[in-house]
Structures are given as C-alpha cells and as structure tokens.
Amino acid sequence: MGSSNEKCTACQGSGKVESKGLNVGAALLGGAIGAATLGPVGMVAGGILGGGAPKECECDACHGSGNASNGSTGRVMTMYHGTSAANVQSIKQNGFRPSSSGMLGPGVYVSRDRQKAEKYGDTVLELDVRPGKTKKITSQNDALRTTWHEQGYDSAWVPPNCGMVNSGRTETCVYDPSRIKVKSK
User: Fold this and answer.
1) Which secondary structure element, helix H or strand E, spans residue 34, and what is its range?
2) For 161, phi and psi rounded to 5 degrees?
3) Name one GO cellular component term (predicted).
4) Class of residue 8 by CB neighbours under 10 A (exposed 0-12, middle 13-18, buried 19+)
C-alpha cells in the first residue's frame, strides 16, 4: 500500500466503520423501550428494529489508524503488555518469552487497549510492535485460531466486541518476539 499519509480506503481515514452485524446492545435497548411502551409485541418489534442499527467499530483494514500503510506488513503499532514487576527486567534484558499455548496458540500476547493489558499484572509495558501479516480471528471455531503461524501469518488479531474475549477488548498474539520492542514501562 501507499505511504502513511494516505487515507485508508475502507474507513476514509476515520479509523472507524459501521458494523454489518447485529448490534446486541441496541437490540436489548430497543426491546426494553418497546416493551415499556407497547407490551410484548413492542418488545419484539423494538428488539428487531434496534438490533439492526449500525454500531461504530474499529476499521479492520487499518486497525483504527486511518492510514492506508497500516495494512502493510512493515507497520509499527503501539501496543501494551501487562506483566508482573518481577518480569519487567527479564523482558527488557532478554526480550519476550512466548507462551506455548493460549486462546490464539503460541506467541506473545499484547493489546492496543492499555486497559486490557492492565488486567494481566501490576506493570504495563508500552511496546512498538510490527504485527506483520495478520490473521483476523472472530470465532472460537476459526480453523486457524491456534495454527495461523503455520500458514504464514506473523500475528493473530481478535477485534473488539466480536465475542472471543469476555471483556470485549482487542487482543493480538505475535508469534516471533523479535517483532516486539519495549518503549517504556
């Protein structure tokens, strides 16, 4: 793709797109309002109509950056990794040691969402990550959920609010730890 100054064509540079799926939150709200005003029939109608309302989500093509170059394999993204204070020095001196398993298989687990990383330890490291060729995973049943690295992918990405992560927050697994550099603690 082009330089980092080019707008992503999928989101027109905004970093956001409207979902094409069911908006569960809007469906529940529509159902509750319909039930309160029109009874059971209103609940069904409100749920159907409310659930069809578009929901703003992070753009899959540029991972929310708005830049066309973010889709290329050379991009660098700021991400976060939560760990214990005891592990920080080892990570800074020796680099990351990938986990042998996990929701997305072996690799180093990071997130663009700092709050997600905060759940995994008392210290959050800010990172420069080169995710490379990324496999988007949106289902536990995805055939490549834990074997994406065997098919030439450098990382696997779970988008926010897709049902894979209970918190609804985004998560990325990077197979090769040399793609990750610690920026700060």
Assistant:
1) helix 24-38
2) 55, 35
3) cytoplasm
4) buried
Residue 99 has pLDDT above 60, yes or no: yes
Could you give the CA distance from residue 72 to residue 6 in angstroms, rounded to a whole number? 12
Tell me the domain boundaries of the chain: 20-54, 75-184
Give pLDDT tens digits for 58-70: 665 566 655 554 4
Nearest CA to 157 among 115, 82, 114, 105? Answer: 105
User: Residue written as tokens 């159902």?
Assistant: 31
At residue 72, the pLDDT reads: 46
The CATH number of 75-184 is 3.90.228.10
The two structure tokens encoding residue 12: 């027109």
pLDDT of residue 55: 59
3-class secondary-structure state, position 135:
strand
Phi and psi at 127, nearest 5°, equal: -125, 155
CA distance 111 to 175: 14
